[in-house]
Write a structure and sequence with these properties.
Length: 342
């Protein structure tokens, strides 16, 4: 299949936006930019188109998709039982990197929800994404636009690397501002539960949901045989081909461990503060406490690790406050839950 490349730097590129919307209305697949990562979009009402998302990505069928809308009044058409606390969070965090899981209406095919009776909904902030959703007149099911299992795409280049020739079109736009996927909260349970950390932090959520429950799968490997609340969290994910180990500990402990074991690793992913004493080829994700920067760079660096052909990589676990929790959540999955406590 020849994939059409549509360059759209802002919502004023009307012709290209109309073309993307037309393809979506006809049941095609279009990769679109969002502020989190690039998404692979199709009409959420079109069962066949949704099936093609799973095929193009190689995604397991039980891993549900997020439905993207451009106006809050679209929500009632696809979800029900919207609690006052859910509404409060949407008012505070939409448009933005926040996804609400709610009981679904029948118009949403079960292929979108991975067979669950709930649907995940997001209203993105990216103006190009919103222009395309609006023009299509459809809610768009859109998981990350990568091949399943590999790091999510934070640039159009990443989407081309993974999906060129497998989908109808790629909207080429800017690098994603946040760089990690949205925060997913289920309001289908009481109290609400954080299923995946992202651009909206636990601290922000707790200001509105004091009794928020953090799903254990956020920071640890889901127990075998126990159903996970967010199916996506059970897969080894965001993973480069290299074997990745995550090391948890202080700057001193990390540098000492790396230097002692320097023959066991060919590369380290670390922070500015680690660099001074590290005798191992490495790259820094930025300052220890600059989690926004770490999120922005993370998937680019995980992809670069493969391009460079590294085989065994050690990563220093980030601090878990703010957006750091999302970075930690992605890195522990990139490591396939292989962790050393220092
Ligand atoms: P992606 O769009 O690739 O970032 O993946 C979507 C994420 O949202 C996955 O981790 C899913 O498990 C989660 N998700 C989507 N729909 C639901 C749902 N109905 N219930 C729980 N988690 C969901
Ligand atoms: Mg994904």
């Amino acid at each position: 299949m020849k994939t059409l490349h549509l360059k759209v730097m802002n919502e004023k590129s009307v012709t290209e936006i109309e073309k993307a919307a037309e393809i979506l209305k006809n049941g095609g697949l279009v990769a679109i930019p969002t502020e989190t990562v690039y998404g692979l979009a199709a009409s959420a009402f079109n069962e066949k188109a949704v099936e093609n998302i799973f095929k193009a990505k190689g995604r397991p069928n039980d891993n549900p998709l997020i439905v993207h809308i451009a106006e809050i009044n679209e929500l009632e058409k696809i979800a029900k039982n919207i609690t006052p606390i859910a509404k409060k969070c949407m008012d505070a965090f939409w448009p933005g990197p926040f996804t609400a899981v709610l009981p679904k209406r029948d118009v949403i095919p079960s292929s979108v929800s991975g067979g669950l009776d709930t649907v995940a909904v997001r209203l993105p902030a990216n103006s190009v994404a919103r222009a395309i959703i609006k023009k299509s007149g459809l809610p768009l099911a859109a998981p990350s636009a990568n091949r399943s299992g590999s790091p999510s795409p934070s640039t159009a280049e990443h989407v081309i690397d993974d999906l060129d020739g497998r989908i109808d079109a790629i909207v080429i736009s800017e690098k994603c501002a946040v760089g990690v996927e949205s925060t997913v909260v289920s309001f289908a349970v009481n109290p609400p539960r954080l299923l995946r950390p992202g651009g909206i932090t636990v601290e922000q959520l707790k200001s509105l949901i004091p009794d928020l429950v953090i799903d254990p799968a956020v920071t640890a490997e889901p127990e075998k045989g126990v159903a996970v609340a967010s199916p996506g969290m059970k897969y080894k994910h965001y993973a480069p081909k290299a074997e990745v180990i995550m090391a948890v500990g202080s700057i001193n402990a990390f540098c000492e461990y790396c230097n002692i074991h320097k023959d066991d690793f060919d590369f380290a992913l670390c922070y500015d503060e680690d660099e001074v004493n590290l005798n191992l080829p490495h790259i820094s994700l930025g300052a220890n406490d600059n989690h926004e920067k770490q999120a922005e760079l993370l998937f680019q660096f995980l992809r670069d690790i493969d391009k460079k052909g590294y085989k065994r990589v050690i990563v220093h676990a980030p601090l878990k406050d703010g957006v750091g929790l999302a970075v930690y959540n992605r890195l522990i999955r990139a490591a396939g839950f292989k962790v050393v406590d220092l």
